[in-house]
């Protein structure tokens, strides 16, 4: 299982990515492979852990956008899993500040949701990019 984290001063988001078969017939209609992972979010004194359904193509697009915003120290990234159980927004400013916010719902048939905000900066994001790079290299685009 692969893992990447988005860390900040008041919390983190850790995503563990499960294995996929890499078989051609398993490619999602939108591209990439579907994987079931685990997510652990801590924001201040609040925390949520649970299952996360995502796609390697979504992860690749997130990685490219994150790298570009980090390099330019500006911009906004919106990442939503195809099952809509994680919505993540990352905003960069020219001073190197990064705000990570969004919400996580493990099961849509239950009324439980964690709304989070994590204050970060460019130095934390550099490690996220490094970890994502090694994960992304395992999957064809």
Automatic annotation (TrEMBL):
InterPro entries: WapI. It holds the Pfam family WapI. This is Uncharacterized protein. It comes from Tissierella creatinophila DSM 6911.
